[in-house]
Amino acid sequence: MDEARWPSDWLRGVLELCVLGALQAGPSYGYAIAQHLEQAGLGTVKGGTLYPLLGRLENEQLVEAVWQVGESGPGRKYFTLTAAGADALRDRAERWHAFVETAAAVVAPRPVRGRL
Amino acid sequence: MDAAASGAAGSPLPDDDWRQELVLALRVRDVPGRRIGDVLAEVEAHCADSGQGPREAFGDPEDYAGELAPGGRPTLVRPWLLKAAATALGVLALLSGVDATVHGGRPSVTVGVVLSLLVTLALAAVVVLRLNDLVRSGWRAWLGLSVGFVALTTLPALLPQRLLSLPARPVLLAGVLLLAAAWWRPGGAAGVADEVVDPRTGAPLRPVPPWVGRALAWFFPLTLLVAVVLVALVPA
Fold this sequence. Notes:
The complex is a heterodimer.
Chain A: H1 8-22, E1 28-29, H2 30-42, H3 47-59, E2 63-68, E3 76-81, H4 83-107
Antiparallel strand pairs in A: 1-3, 2-3
Helix pairs in contact in A: 1-2
Chain B: H1 14-27, H2 33-50, H3 54-58, H4 61-68, H5 79-103, E1 108-110, H6 111-129, H7 131-136, H8 139-158, E2 162-165, H9 168-183, H10 210-233
Antiparallel strand pairs in B: 1-2
């Protein structure tokens, strides 16, 4: 299956939520999060987009970050969902689903009534 | 730092230039040293994991700094420009205070004084807004700044039309106080007290070549000292 190329404004709207979602499985680091999202079919997320977003999540205390010195090579910064982050993910994911259903209802195909 | 003026064997890596630009872009946005170290370590770790270079993964360093610190470019009220204004006034007050105290007379606010203040503020704005370009142009930048400093100290003598006259010792004192207020840093003498530190090791990082730090720290006090001595020695 070839890589999905979603419109960038769609991705911009959902990326923060998806990053929170990616952290549900446990602590992870920047590159691994980007890989996770890519493998899920969301396309490539560049470092220049991802890290400022993670920084904002950290400022809002939705994630915590810790540097872990690795055995091989330089250390990595691991991000973990906080309790507030898990709550935010749950609430926003619910709203997101509601939003998508609303939009889907508006764009659902319906028969064109006659001609003008 | 010119690619042609590398000093060491071979030219500096483009990655070094990228990191240096990022550090300077973050500095003028008043990002603290610790956060700068954190950002640099993130970039390094991500590039190591992804195999990409910093420009490929993070884009233009100015743009990246803008994303990280969305407070925006420095505005007129930013600390750097206030510091420049206090420094300019302080230097003028100090030099005219020394002159008047040693040789007698009263310091005056003259056309030359006002003009040299404006020149200094214009130079400071250029430094703050074009810091990356300045560092890259090396000796040309220091030449320009030296010319500005000369203008600052000689315009008052060249354009002595008097606007206002003031007592000598208070002006001298005001000069000393303004310079102290502008440059005093608790816990950090002439160097850059707010150091960029690697969060993984605690060791300081030096993404900007040491000569820049040293030059910034010593150029100004040395030039000022020379100016004070000249003013005191040269008969009025």
